[in-house]
Structures are given as C-alpha cells and as structure tokens.
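Pipeline run #58 for the internal structure catalog. This entry was flagged by the ingest filter as a single-chain record with no existing model, so it goes straight to prediction. Upstream metadata was stripped on purpose; only the residue string is passed forward. Reviewer on rotation: M.T. Logging verbosity set to normal.
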Amino acid sequence: MTEKESPLRSFDRGLLAAIRVAVALLLAMMFAVIMWEVVARYVLASPAFWTEEFARYVMFYMVLLGSAAAVREDKHPSLTFVIQKFSAGFRRKWKLVLDGLVFLVLAVIFWEGCVMAVEEWIGKTPALRISFFWVYLALPIGACLMMVEIVAKNVLGEEAGNKNSEEVSVSEGD
C-alpha cells in the first residue's frame, strides 16, 4: 500500500522541479546567445552589441536559482573531512547551526536585494536598456528560494529528488 504524499512535500518537489527547468532553460538561452555572438563576430564580421550583457544577466539568474537546488540537495561545496570524525548526532546539530547561519545571511541578501532593486528602478542597463530592477531582482528571488529550501530540507528531512531516500530528521537524537 502506498502512502499519500503530503501537500508540503508535493509543493517542495514541484518547486525543485520548476527550479531545475528554469535553470536548464536559462543555460540553453545563454548557450544560444553566446553561439550567436561567436557566429556574428567571426563568420558575419558584425558582432551583436547586446549578447555579452544578456549572457551575464542570464548567468546571474542561473547561478542564484541553481543555488536553491544545490542547497536543497546538499550539493554545495563543503569541507567535511573534519566533521565526519564526530558522531552522527553532532553532525546533525552542526548542520542545523550552519543552516541557521546561512539562513541569516540569506535574509540579509534578500533584504538588501530588495532595496537595491527598488533603488535602481530608474537606471537602465547599457546595452539592453532594461531597468536594473530586473537584474537586481535575482538577489531576493534567489535568496528567498534558498531560504525556502533550507526550511524544507530541515522540516521534510529527505533529499528532495529521491522519494525513497532514507529520511533523516534534524530532531533525531544520537
């Protein structure tokens, strides 16, 4: 008998899937634009003035969105050779403390990103002539998604992409 998935777990899986799709689309867009620039510059001898700036902003969004998926799946780089020598209970508590600190830093990034986006509403990018608001909006969006994924990781206690993974709750004892 299969047990029904909770709405929170379903939302988490759906959000993570949407993030993955968005990152893949952004990567494809960046690749296409850079390829166009190479062809335009070296084959057509007429470089497009907007491609470098567009690729830069797409990459900015791609990194911030992809970071949310990396946080959820514990795929971010970390040095674990020292902490692995401690007990499983200590490691769980250490991860919770680190997640709390990262959450606080992300809250600051969220707030400052909102302030930057609003303050730069009137400014325009040099080549694309779009408002810097849309560029800086990546900071609060990425920070918010990472905070949601930190909470989901600690509340749901499993790797998001794997339904059958062994559940490890932060509240478990040694």
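catalog note: The chain has one domain: 7-156.
catalog note: Residues 92 and 154 are 10 Å apart (CA to CA).
status: ready for reviewer M.T.
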